[in-house]
């Protein structure tokens, strides 16, 4: 099954020390890996390479982040944090 994932999408690791935390995808490397940030521990300067099969992919997408990524504008870590919090408010399941 091919998973469709796009930059700006909300993801959550399935297991490990990162489980329970939320990230935004900032880049899709290939069909297997993405780069994800949370704006706190994993900042834009040092994104985390994540295997797609180890992620819960939520349908929420941060439109403002997508627009900035497409236009090449600078994105701050604070904007990433705000977008994640806003998307978590709309998530189907609570983060805790």
From TrEMBL:
InterPro entries, alphabetized: Rib_uL2_dom2, Ribosomal_eL14_KOW, Translation_prot_SH3-like_sf
GO cellular component: ribonucleoprotein complex; ribosome
Keyword annotations: Ribonucleoprotein, Ribosomal protein
Xref: Gene3D superfamilies: 2.30.30.30
Protein name per Swiss-Prot or TrEMBL: Ribosomal protein L14E/L6E/L27E
């Amino acid at each position: 099954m091919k998973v469709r994932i796009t930059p700006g999408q909300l993801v959550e690791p399935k297991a490990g020390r990162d489980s329970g935390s939320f990230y935004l995808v900032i880049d899709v490397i290939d069909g297997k890996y993405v780069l994800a940030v949370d704006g706190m521990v994993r900042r834009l300067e040092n994104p985390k390479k994540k295997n797609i099969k180890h992620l819960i992919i939520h349908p929420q997408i941060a439109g403002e982040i997508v627009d900035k990524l497409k236009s090449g504008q600078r994105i701050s870590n604070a904007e990433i944090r705000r977008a994640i919090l806003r998307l978590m408010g709309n998530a189907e399941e609570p983060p805790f």
